[in-house]
């Protein structure tokens, strides 16, 4: 199953994306904090990351620099 990490500081946006992607058969995990996202990326494997830019903890630009060497596809939302 394809695993997607949704990173957005607005829970309602995360929930909406999660509901739709889960209905389409994807396994989704949502977080609202940049540092929490980095922690999950270190512990889990994801096939795609949907990433907001303005986040508490670490912003989307900091996170994408961390993700780049891992070669995980990222879509900014």
Say how many strands there are. 4
The secondary-structure element order is EHEHEHE
Main β-sheet description: 4 strands, parallel
- How far apart, in Å, are the first and last alpha carbons? 22 Å
In angstroms, what is the radius of gyration? Answer: 11 Å
Number of helices: 3
Low-confidence stretches: none
What share of the residues does DSSP label as strand, in percent? 15-25%
Structural class: alpha/beta
As a percent range, the share of helical residues equals 40-55%
Average pLDDT, rounded to a whole number, is 96
How would you write the strand order of the largest sheet? 2-1-3-4
Q: What is the general shape?
A: globular
């Amino acid at each position: 199953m394809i695993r997607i990490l949704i990173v957005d500081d607005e829970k309602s946006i995360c929930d909406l994306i999660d509901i739709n992607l889960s209905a389409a058969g994807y396994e989704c995990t949502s977080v609202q904090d940049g540092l929490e996202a980095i922690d999950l990326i270190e512990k889990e494997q994801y096939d795609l990351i949907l990433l907001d830019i303005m986040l508490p903890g670490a912003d989307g630009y900091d996170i994408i620099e961390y993700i780049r060497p891992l070669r995980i596809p990222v879509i900014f939302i």
